Amino acid sequence: MTIEIKTSTLEPVRQTYANIARRFGDKPATRYQEATYDVQAETNFHYRPLWQPQHELNDKGRTAIQMEDWYAFRDPRQYYYGAYVGQRARMQENAENNYAFFEKRNLADRLGDGIRAGLIRFLVPLRHVEHAANLNNMYGTAYGYGTAITQAMLYDGMDRLGIAQYFSRIGLILDGNSGEALIEAKRAWMEDPLWQGLRALCEETLVTRDWFELFVAQDLVLDSLIGQLVYDQYDAWLADNGGQDVAMLTEFMQEWRKDRTRWVDAVLKTAAAESDDNRALLRDWAAKWRGKAAEALSPLAREMLGEEALEQALAELEKRMAKAGIN
Amino acid sequence: MAAKKLNIKDKYRLLTRDLDWEFSYQDRKEAFPYEEFEGIKITDWSKWEDPFRLTMDAYWKYQAEKEKKLYAIFDAFAQNNGHLNISDPRYANALKIFLTGVSPLEYQAFQGFAHTGRQFGGVGARIACQMQSIDELRHVQTQIHAMSHYNKFFDGFQDWSHMHDRVWYLSVPKSFFDDARSAGPFEYLVAISFSFEYVLTNLLFVPFMSGAAYNGDMATVTFGFSAQSDEARHMTLGLEVIKFLLEQHEDNVPIVQKWIDKWFWRGTRLLSIVAMMMDYMLPNKVMSWKEAWEVYFEEAGGSLFKDLARYGIRMPKYAETTEKEKEHVSHQAWWIFYNYGQAAGFHTWIPTDKELDWLSEKYPETFDKYYRPRWELARQMEAEGKRFYNPGLPQLCNCCQIPMGFTEMDDPTQIAYRQTVYNGERYHFCSDGCHDIFVDEPEKYVQSWLPVHQIFQGNCGGPGVEDVLRDYYRMNVGADNLDIKGSPDEQRWNAWKGVA
Ligand SMILES: [Fe+2]
Ligand SMILES: [Fe+2]
Ligand SMILES: [Zn+2]
After folding, report:
1. Which residues, including other chains, have CB under 8 Å from residue B300's CB and lie 6 or more apart?
2. pTM for the predicted model, two decimal places
3. Are the CB atoms for B159 and A19 separated by under 8 Å?
4. Is the Cβ pair A17, B157 closer than 8 Å?
5. Structural domain harbouring B236
6. B181 alpha carbon to ligand 2 midpoint, in Å?
7. B184–A51: do the CB atoms touch at under 8 Å?
8. What is the pLDDT of residue A2?
9. Largest Cα–Cα distance of chain A, in whole Å?
10. Could you give the CA distance from residue A29 to residue A96 in angstroms, rounded to a whole number?
11. How far does the CA of residue A177 sit from the closest CA of chain B (Å)?
């Protein structure tokens, strides 16, 4: 039985803000729409930035990509702040339970020495990669155009900080909170020849100027390849070699990867569908960074997983590029 | 293996501070290129004390809890027509100023902290900025959602972001934040984190949020409570920034002092809009602007600057002037808007008898002597059917962009004019403070997009003011502007309340 509660209704003068009504008609709008569209200032900036006088404060010209409407980058997840933190809070609660269980049962002790050493060598240094990813997404947040894409880049940037912290916690679980695993992993990051290609590439992304190119380099190419190697192949290898419990510690990242891949692919598809010029740019950037990343990752992939590993990861990247129309 | 317990500081260091590394393959200055041009000297970023040590997982958790509660209230507010509980329809006009004037600044704060959150070479400072960036995005979005229901029932909210980029008086807040964001990253932090968030924030936040509480506005007051813990973090960042810069190098002291002087003055000018809101726009008064200034600046700020004296920092320049201004500024500001009420995106009115008496009581030195007679004259003219509007457009200060209506503080009958000549052009200012800011950086302030100049140059449509309002500002002329008396807002309110 449903109870019908009577509430008094007043006739509103309008259903939503005028900018939303201009885009979608005067009808009740979603919270995502009102929090996103046309929120960023567009015109009449008072002063040129001292730090970049060639640009306005908000300037479409910080990338070579051109869009008729920068709000075309609708986030398929429709994350505004409240929706975003709500979703991540659910994921972190699950992660917290996993970490607590892992520690309570001393599951780290059940990992063989080989697995443990492998984790410190291959997994924990990723905290530094995530740190670069944090900065690269903050770059898009700060210099990108239009709230639709800049807010999503901020959420991704904060995700990467969170993930860097999860990788750090894995290190602390492995070394009993002494911090030694983190020191060792950082030594590998700084000195081990296996990691130098990737470190050099991360440093190169940090000096890349076009924010959309950086999005392609980081969020498509690097994340696609590293994600496939680590969260698919290495995860499977661990499962087959007595390290299956580690999946509890990376479940957050697994779930995050699915969530944000939808967004990244949607952005690429929208940008490519806009014009042939955009498509050509995206294709060039993807090819350029695919080449650099393949070279940088090759020793690591081989050592971590074997000869075929990188090919598999590249095949998945190919597929995503094809889906976005930029292969 | 028994895991040892980590204290919060060590844990935060391991989880966060240690993520960065020394570059081997690129020049680090290329990655963080804006740290030196302001002349600030950073000798050791590792001395940065994290003002709060919040990891992302904890952040998601706390913030999601707050959001859940907040949106439950917003939903209930909309469902129960919460707008009917406000004290008086005049109150809604304070919210219109908030949404068109303040919320876009939250957005600029999101952008400004994203910029510094990417650019600082020290990881601790960067991440503190990133967290503030996402908080500020929260603020603008929750404010849009809090006002969403009001927008359905009152005029003047509907085109807030379009208006913010164009409308004459909104260039006051817009230029304030454009100024901060176009400055270097260290000046930005001194401007926003310290001078604004730490020194002056209570003068923005308390008036609006307590004003909401006193006037039955559940949506805004709930937002205010919800944002309080964010603001507490922002204030600790502001204090850490100042201490860090002053402790890093003695050469930083005069630079920081100059920025404090500038941003204190910029801030007080911006707050004159809040002053008039408190004294004239809130039907139920919280406290007078003068009282607020005394509590939140003179007392709290006074002891802060005593504390900073050990670094060689003194009270901001022209703090003495503000001691006189607190007696005048709200009256002069509301008078300007009453005069130009045909060109404002909210309603204006003459204070009621009760309100005039309250103002006399709160401003015994000035109100009866200088301001009450004006309102009594306006009242008389209104009664004769001659509600007065100034048909022209005011000249604006080339720095703060407020109409040149403020007076000499020692002679409130004399409008204050300051001027300077730069590259053969003459520029006008409302005060010594604004004059000095211009003279220190003329190449910056000659760029000011002064709305009235722009209208006269034909850059905002026209030819008449009404054309500008209708076509360029996209105001609903006759609904959004003019006196509250006879406005559609007032008519609807009376219909809802069953008043003839
Ligand atoms: Fe804020
Ligand atoms: Fe704040
Ligand atoms: Zn001024």
Report:
1. B202
2. 0.97
3. yes
4. yes
5. 49-348
6. 15
7. yes
8. 63
9. 71
10. 35
11. 6
Give A42's contacts in chain B (Cβ within 8 Å).
165
Rounded to two decimals, the ipTM of the complex is 0.97
- Domain count within chain B: 1
CA distance B250 to B242: 12
The pLDDT of residue B205 is: 84
Chain B's closest residue to A128, CA to CA, is B19
Q: Per-residue confidence of chain A (327 residues) as pLDDT tens digits?
A: 566 666 567 899 999 999 999 999 999 999 999 999 999 999 999 999 999 999 999 999 999 999 999 999 999 999 999 999 999 999 999 999 999 999 999 999 999 999 999 999 999 999 999 999 999 999 999 999 999 999 999 999 999 999 999 999 999 999 999 999 999 999 999 999 999 999 999 999 999 999 999 999 999 999 999 999 999 999 999 999 999 999 999 999 999 999 999 999 999 999 999 999 999 999 999 999 999 999 999 999 999 999 999 999 999 999 999 999 998
Q: Pick from A138, A297, A96, A100: which is nearest to B125 by CA?
A: A138
A vs B, Cβ pairs < 8 A, gives 261
The tokens of A65 are what? 């990509």
Give tens-digit pLDDT for B245-277. 999 999 999 999 999 999 999 999 999 999 999
Residues in chain B: 500
Q: How far is B24 from chain A (nearest CA, A)?
A: 8
Work out the minimum CA distance from B309 to partner chain A, whole angstroms.
30
Mean of pLDDT over chain B: 96
Question: Which has the closest alpha carbon to A37: A68, A80, A76?
Answer: A80
- How far is the centre of ligand 1, averaged over its atoms, from the C-alpha of B292 (Å)? 20
Q: Confirm whether B225 is domain-assigned.
A: yes
**Residue extents of the structural domains in chain A:** 76-323
Is B21 contained in some domain? no
Q: Does B43 touch chain A if contact means CB atoms closer than 8 Å?
A: no
3-state secondary structure of B27: coil
Task: Kindly state the DSSP code that residue B350 receives in the 8-state scheme.
Answer: P
- Cβ neighbour number for residue A68 with a 10 Å cutoff: 7
- CA-to-CA dists, residue B97 to A31, A231, B161, B470, angstroms: 22, 50, 12, 19
SS3 call for B490: helix
pLDDT digits (tens, 9 = 90+) for B36-88: 999 999 999 999 999 889 999 999 999 999 999 999 999 999 999 999 999 99
- Chain A residues close to B115, C-beta within 8 Å: 142-143
Residue A43 in contact with partner chain B when CB distance is under 8 A: yes
Classified by CATH at the fold level, domain A76-323 comes out as Ribonucleotide Reductase, subunit A (1.10.620)
Average pLDDT over every residue of B156-173: 98
Residue type, B492: R
B470–A contact, CB cutoff 8 A:
no
Identify whether the C-beta of residue B108 lies closer than 8 Å to the C-beta of residue B32.
no
Q: Which CATH number do you get for residue B92?
A: 1.10.620.20
Which chain A residues are within 8 Å of B479, Cβ to Cβ?
none
**Taking a C-beta distance cutoff of 8 angstroms, is the pair A39, B136 a contact?**
no
Nearest to B117 among A8, A86, A138 (CB): A138
Indicate whether B117 belongs to any domain: yes
Asked if A82 and B474 come within 8 Å (Cβ–Cβ), the reply is no
Chain A residue numbers with beta carbons less than 8 Å from the beta carbon of B151 are 14, 16-17
Instruction: Tell me the pLDDT tens digit for each residue of A29-46.
Output: 999 999 999 999 999 999
Contact B81 A10 (CB under 8 A): yes
* SS3 at position B348: strand
Q: Which residues of B touch A182 (CB under 8 A)?
A: 14, 18
> Is residue B258 a part of any domain in this protein?
yes
* Residue of A34, A57, A173 lying closest to B182 (CB–CB): A57
Which member of A48, A158, A169 has the closest CB to residue B182?
Answer: A48
| B161 contact A CB<8A | yes
Q: From the DSSP assignment, how many helices (H) and strands (E) are in chain A?
A: 15, 0
